[in-house]
């Protein structure tokens, strides 16, 4: 019987994607129909289809949305359906692809590109925190390129800036530019090159499929005047760009200000005591540290957030109006909510003006340095002062009062929700929503949500690592060996260390991790744990005053880790 392939992409509906995979597996099993399945969703890295399965297949079923790596299937017969179709009538879907209804054959694709021989590829990877996904995506692209015989160079835009930066000659010699980023990336240097943009998940999940798709679908980026007038994003990237990506770009640039400010304020209290920042202590080291942290770093959190949200939307013309709008939001007591509003207003205003103001070529140089900053700042500022600022400040004030006064059952529920969100998709939209909102609240003096988020994000890899030791028969030898690495990643608050284990057995591992993280978050908030910095894991706990109730934090971490490990051990089957 002919081999059937199925690729399921859930977009943000990761649970539905998992259910669709299981439905297809069971339906094919009842028919004795050979099927190879691949899950591509934000919650997992999936199991890429083996090349041997693709080689002997006669048809492929493409389910759902997002990047399904279609370019790797060449001229295979294919059918595209929605996830809802699979969940509603899986048998009809299988009949459809086997009969050839709704199929399409690729007239060109990666096989055409492959025929041209080895290609030169330059790539950029970037994620909001610039830690795990950035380098996992780079490794995925490098490994895939080597396996496919292509020459690949990758620039990582991580937490410490760009590493292995691409040079102008390398870019000029490249056949395509591949961007795998969850944040905005400056594309000005790629004018005149074929560019393909996607997210880091695609590179982590299936590097070979991504490269094949990129070679087939990369689009020429405008050069010259067209490049100067727009963010110069290719169509593939433009479709993927949206509010979430713009917000994450702002958050990624905001985080260093939060980290520096939070730690300096904590050190100020450690050096000068609880009254270190009182006016009477002016001139002391504690007071100086507090001034740097509170009036320097913390004062720039909201402007940085707003400025780089606007930058993600409108490129460089958005930075000045965005930052000015963010400063107005801070002065109006509208906090990070006002900063988000200012960033989007400034970004879309600057982009609209940039696209619709046309000057004589001799005056074109005035647009980026005079006209756009003036008009976009004027519109953003007036809207912030007269329309947005006051109501957003009232909302933030109410939110701040509610969070600071939260106790008992309220704290328990919030901890359950925030902690659980960190383990649902391990770096996906749900995880990042909890993280970004909690990190932003630090600028308003609200530190408890960050504690639930960081502790809840540490326990999935820590719990998995413990499970590999307590229940070794549930894991293969390579998985037991990888458990040690997962422990290190968990200690550093890199939740993505649990992704390989979740991908191998999502229906048992993900619920176990969500339960453990929810317990960890609930325990943390119930015990009054607060965290003043948004990253670092165990390595920031010893810093004086960085954590309120250090004992409670350790209890929460241990509780979440143990719950995750026990549930994984009970639910997973013995390894083959």
TrEMBL record:
InterPro entries according to UniProt: Bacterial_PTS_Sugar_Transport (IPR050864), PTS_EIIB-like_sf (IPR036095), PTS_EIIB_2 (IPR013011), PTS_EIIB_2/3 (IPR003501), PTS_EIIC (IPR003352), PTS_EIIC_2 (IPR013014), PTS_IIB_fruc (IPR003353), PTS_IIC_fruc (IPR006327)
EC number(s) per entry: 2.7.1.202
Record-linked PROSITE patterns: PTS_EIIB_TYPE_2, PTS_EIIC_TYPE_2
Principal subcellular localisation of the protein: membrane
PTS EIIC type-2 domain: residues covered: 243-576
Pfam families per the UniProt record, alphabetical: PTS_EIIC, PTS_IIB
Gene Ontology MF annotations: carbohydrate:proton symporter activity; kinase activity; protein-N(PI)-phosphohistidine-fructose phosphotransferase system transporter activity; protein-phosphocysteine-sugar phosphotransferase activity
Protein localization: Cell inner membrane
Catalytic activity, reaction form: D-fructose(out) + N(pros)-phospho-L-histidyl-[protein] = D-fructose 1-phosphate(in) + L-histidyl-[protein]
GO CC terms of this entry: plasma membrane
Boundaries of every PTS EIIB type-2 domain copy: 121-216
GO process terms (BP): phosphoenolpyruvate-dependent sugar phosphotransferase system
Membrane topology: Multi-pass membrane protein
Gene3D superfamilies linked: 3.40.50.2300
Protein name, as recorded: protein-N(pi)-phosphohistidine--D-fructose phosphotransferase
Organism name: Methylobacterium durans
Phylogenetic lineage: Bacteria, Pseudomonadati, Pseudomonadota, Alphaproteobacteria, Hyphomicrobiales
């Amino acid at each position: 019987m002919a081999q059937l392939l199925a690729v399921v992409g859930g977009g943000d509906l990761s649970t539905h994607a998992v259910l669709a995979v299981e439905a297809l597996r069971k339906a094919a099993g009842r028919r004795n129909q050979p099927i190879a399945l691949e899950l591509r969703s934000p919650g997992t890295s999936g199991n890429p289809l083996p090349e041997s399965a693709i080689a002997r297949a006669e048809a492929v079923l493409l389910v759902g949305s997002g990047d399904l790596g279609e370019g790797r299937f060449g001229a295979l017969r294919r059918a595209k359906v929605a996830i809802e179709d699979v969940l509603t009538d899986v048998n009809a879907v299988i009949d459809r692809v086997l009969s050839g209804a709704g199929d399409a054959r690729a007239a060109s694709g990666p096989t055409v590109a492959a025929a041209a021989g080895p290609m030169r590829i330059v790539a950029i990877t970037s994620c909001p925190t610039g830690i795990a996904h950035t380098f996992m995506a780079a490794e995925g692209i490098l490994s895939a390129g080597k396996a496919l015989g292509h020459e690949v160079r990758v620039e990582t835009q991580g937490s410490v800036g760009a590493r292995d930066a691409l040079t102008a000659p390398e870019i000029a010699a490249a056949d395509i530019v591949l961007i795998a980023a969850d944040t905005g990336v400056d594309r000005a240097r790629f004018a005149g090159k074929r560019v393909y943009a996607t997210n880091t998940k695609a590179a982590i999940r299936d590097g070979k499929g991504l490269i094949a798709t990129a070679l087939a679908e990369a689009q020429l980026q405008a050069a010259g005047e067209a490049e100067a007038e727009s963010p110069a994003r290719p169509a593939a990237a433009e479709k993927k760009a949206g509010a979430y990506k713009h917000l994450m770009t702002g958050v990624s640039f905001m985080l260093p200000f939060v980290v520096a400010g939070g730690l300096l304020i904590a050190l100020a209290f450690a050096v000068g005591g609880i009254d270190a920042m009182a006016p009477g202590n002016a001139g002391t080291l504690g007071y100086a540290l507090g001034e740097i942290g509170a009036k320097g770093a913390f004062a720039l959190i909201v402007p940085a957030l707003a400025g780089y949200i606007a930058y993600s939307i409108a490129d460089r013309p958005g930075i000045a109006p965005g930052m000015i709008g963010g400063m107005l939001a801070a002065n109006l007591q509208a906090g990070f909510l006002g900063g988000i509003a200012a960033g989007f207003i400034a970004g879309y205003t600057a982009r609209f003006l940039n696209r619709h103001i046309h000057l004589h070529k001799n005056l074109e140089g005035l647009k980026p340095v005079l006209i756009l900053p003036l008009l976009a700042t004027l519109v953003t500022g007036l809207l912030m002062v007269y329309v947005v600022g006051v109501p957003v400040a009232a909302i933030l004030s109410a939110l701040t009062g509610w969070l600071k006064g939260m106790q008992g059952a309220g704290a328990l529920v919030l901890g359950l929700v925030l902690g659980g969100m960190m383990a649902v998709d391990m770096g996906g939209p749900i995880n990042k929503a909890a993280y970004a909102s909690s990190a932003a609240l630090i600028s308003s003096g609200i530190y408890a949500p960050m504690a639930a988020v960081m502790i809840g994000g540490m326990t999935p890899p820590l719990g998995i690592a413990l499970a590999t030791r307590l229940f070794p028969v549930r894991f293969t030898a390579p998985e037991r060996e990888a458990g040690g690495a997962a422990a290190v990643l968990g200690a550093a608050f890199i939740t993505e260390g649990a992704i390989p284990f979740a991908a191998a057995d999502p229906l048992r591992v993900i619920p176990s991790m969500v339960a453990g993280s929810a317990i960890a978050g609930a325990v943390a908030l119930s015990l009054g744990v607060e965290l003043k910095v948004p990253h670092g894991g165990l390595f920031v706990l010893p810093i004086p005053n960085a954590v309120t109730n250090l004992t409670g934090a350790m209890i929460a971490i241990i509780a979440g880790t143990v719950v995750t490990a026990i549930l994984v051990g009970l639910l997973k089957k013995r390894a083959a």
